[in-house]
Amino acid sequence: MKNFIHLKAKLDFLANQKNTDHSLFETPDPLQIAKIHNDEFIALICALFAYGNAKNIVNFLKKLDFSLLNLQEKQIKKELKNLKYRFQNEKDIQEIFITLSRLKNEISLYELFYQAYQKRENTTDAILAFMQKIKTLNSYSSYGYDFFFGKIWQNTPTSPLKRYNMYLRWMVRKDELDLGLFTKIHTKDLLIPLDTHTHKISLTLGLLKRKIYDYKSVLELTQNLKKLDANDPIKYDFALYRLGQSKEIDKFKE
């Protein structure tokens, strides 16, 4: 119990320190771009392109003209020529914008996510509903396009769904760090946006026992973080991520 109280105190201190504008802008992070625009669709694009090197992600996001989501599809294709990012080629990026433009004309992301979430207060249900909706909007398929939106699962996901859970953290939590635009989804129902840094750090701190980087680890870590804060377990996410990034774990454990 003593060790648990000590760990909670240190993580609470670190979360208060890291969940700030100042800390966010210390190193490149896609949330920086999302915060500038404060828009659910732009934030989604920022989150789903958030794979690979953080500096490269931010540099790419700065090149995007998000206002294209409001234009005709012909104009979207014209304006998004010669643009690519890692797995996504020019055609993939054009089709991503076209798909999201179609969705934007039909329903808000908040409404889409909330409709699925509120049935069981389950954010994974909301992610699945979004993916299923995307499939109905565009028949286009390629490795890059499908990677961007993710693979629909049967029964239970195996993927940690890191980018989607990160998006929901941004949209649901409301503080100096996160946007808090999805007000009817509760912070207690969020899942940790587990990346390899957070996974490794959580193992080291004893917050996680499962060594496989998957959805089961997400559930285990989230449950353990609920022991630290039942109402807002994911407030520790950014702090754990930055701790893993900075390699200051030995200093933290002192």
Task: Write a structural description.
The chain has 254 residues and is an all-alpha fold. It has one domain. It is built from 15 helices and no strands. Helix 8 (109-120) packs across helix 9. The chain is globular and about 60 Å long.
- Which secondary-structure class do the elements indicate? mainly alpha
Helix proportion: 55-70%
Radius of gyration: 18 Å
Provide mean pLDDT, rounded: 95
* Share of residues in strands: under 5%
Total individual domains: 1
SS summary, helix count: 15
What form results from the Cα inertia axes?
globular
What does the main sheet amount to?
none
Tell me the number of strands. 0
> Low-confidence runs (pLDDT<50, min 5 residues)?
none
The arrangement of helices and strands along the chain is: HHHHHHHHHHHHHHH
Distance between the termini: 17 Å
Protein name: TIGR02757 family protein
Organism: Campylobacter jejuni
Pfam families: DUF2400 (PF09674)
GO molecular function: catalytic activity
Layout of secondary structure:
Elements: H1 2-18, H2 21-24, H3 30-37, H4 40-48, H5 54-63, H6 73-79, H7 90-106, H8 109-120, H9 123-137, H10 143-149, H11 162-172, H12 196-205, H13 215-226, H14 237-246, H15 249-253
Keywords:
254 residues, single chain, 61% helix, mainly alpha
